[in-house]
Amino acid sequence: MKADTGSLASIPLWLLMHPNIPASAIRLWGVLHAKYTIRTPDEPVADPTRGELARDLRCSVDSIDRRLKALVTEGALVVIPQTTPTNQRTQNRYLLVLSEGRSPAATGAEEMRPPQALIPFRDSPLELTASPVRSQVSVPKRSTVQQYVRFREFWAAYPRKHRKQRAQVVWLKLGIEGDTPLWVQVMAGLRQWKNLWKAEATKTQYIPHPSTWLNDRRWEDDIDQPSPVLSAKTKTLIAGSQQFLARHQRGEHKR
Fold it and tell me: What is the architecture of the domain spanning 1-142?
């Protein structure tokens, strides 16, 4: 009988053996990796709330803050503050560092940062500062809301609006925003899929999540374009026309 082990956390050996990171913080890193990470290339990204983490680990939010601070201080975690289009603070995103001493800039994390340095990390007021993460990270001057024009066009066109932030992370990891030929392919593939979903009257809940559609590169699928769906009225008109033509042909033969 095959046992169900559930989700597995892959914790780097350097993190397990780190002398300055407590076991409780390593456990938090493992929960982020096993339960919340988005499966994309390079370093994994997670975006739970601190309240969710506190419930998972059966501890207080203050304890979660202390463990996050320990991970950030030793370079095992990068906290990416998030804002809404109206510049309101929302829940943080966490970048889990797999390689010891690896700069977050190499993973493209700087593309997702708003126009402030990695200083406070919180989804509610918290006085906490993060130490530099191995190397200096440049911060873009424009807000993330203004940058991703092509992603916004994709999101507006995609028929199922679900987990926008996850879809954006996959979009950036695949490099679609800055790759014009790839962006054209993605949008052309999406149009074909939308035609198929419309022709087959696919309900919204059966359309893949946008992050899944992107991660699986569904725009590369070979899609058989469906035949037009005829209404009952159109079918009746066609049948009547066929009957008229049949009677006309029989009359010609009698002559």
Answer: Orthogonal Bundle (1.10)
